Amino acid sequence: MHADLFELLENSHTTVIALDKMLTLQYLNASAETLLDLSKQRALGAPMTEVIGQKELYHDLHRAIEQHQQFTRWETPLTFSQGTITADYFVTPMDCQRYSLLLEIHPRERLRRIASKESQATGHETSRNLVRGLAHEIKNPLGGIRGAAQLLSRMLKDPTLEDYTGIIIEEADRLRDLVDRMLGPLTPPYIRAINIHEVLERVGQLISAETNQQLRITRDYDPSIPPVPVDKELMIQALLNLSRNAMQAIMQTMSLEEGHLTLRSRITRQFTINRKRRRLVCHLSVIDNGPGVPESLSESLFYPMISGHPEGSGLGLSVTQSIIRQHKGLIECDSRPGNTCFHVYLPLQDEQS
Questions:
Q1: Among 27, 66, 151, 232, whose Cα sits 20 to 30 Å from the Cα of 125?
Q2: Beta-bridge partners for 306
Q3: What is this structure's pTM?
Q4: Sheet of strand 15-19, all strands in order from the earlier edge strand to the far edge
Q5: Distance between CA atoms of 237 and 203, rounded to whole angstroms?
Q6: Which one, of 352, 353, 336, 323, lies nearest residue 344 by Cα?
Q7: Tens digit of each residue's pLDDT (9 = 90 or more) over 289-330
Q8: Going by DSSP bridges, is the β-strand pair 339-347/276-288 parallel, antiparallel, or unpaired?
């Protein structure tokens, strides 16, 4: 294959697979590797029937060879090793010694999900801007209230009244701390390439200490992940928020000994973050076996002041999302009872721009 054409296909958003007359895989691009969850080394030479389960697709492939005609299917279910998706596909015959058919697949779920996440991200950003503006408006008079209480305390002749001014000062300080949390990180992140497993290990150690080692924690790491450009302390805070949420969710329905938290790292190829296609991203997952996210909160989970815990402030996930966005990353949540997974996607160093 010509080098320029090869590079073009490797960077294409479309899943591209080339087959011979026997319907065995002779080429697949990076998008196809991601969709099929197969490396080129494992996939090349494999029969198509072992890779995708769909009788209609095989019928179209055979007809394309026999009739030398292109076939198109819209919104068709295709079954892969990791599940079933709905996709559009195009089968094109080729006059080539090695390649007889070109198969292009366009998954529809991911496109819908990207559009949904972009809409949610816009809403979250608007919400955060409103909250930040409100927080600033609250913080200014709080300073005046605290200062006035301090002056009043010095002027009071009855020592017993100082308890009341003390309450005013303590409550003003508590509200100030809450406002600071609403505002999120106030300084730009200090980005440097680090081993991301140092972050996951630190989070695991902190959660283990907070639960007196009662919560079972599984580390599932991919050691091949290269250094990831992050602010280490901010990323620890972000993943710690997710892990604490998981711990609290587990405690709502079971004992800590029954709970299970998994910290996972992987590489994901050809992934779109904020309308930008990334060739490689670091994919971190925080998984728990708690009761899951209530359906009523699924769309508003990352909004400020929204919490599924009775005593929660509703700021943890909002701050976490803010940190991830500062790193040009993406956070998503998949949840069902017994399996809740927060996915964090971070661009790798050569992708950061």
A1: 232
A2: none
A3: 0.61
A4: 25-28, 15-19, 101-107, 83-93, 71-80
A5: 8
A6: 323
A7: 999 988 777 666 766 655 555 555 556 788 888 889 889 999
A8: antiparallel
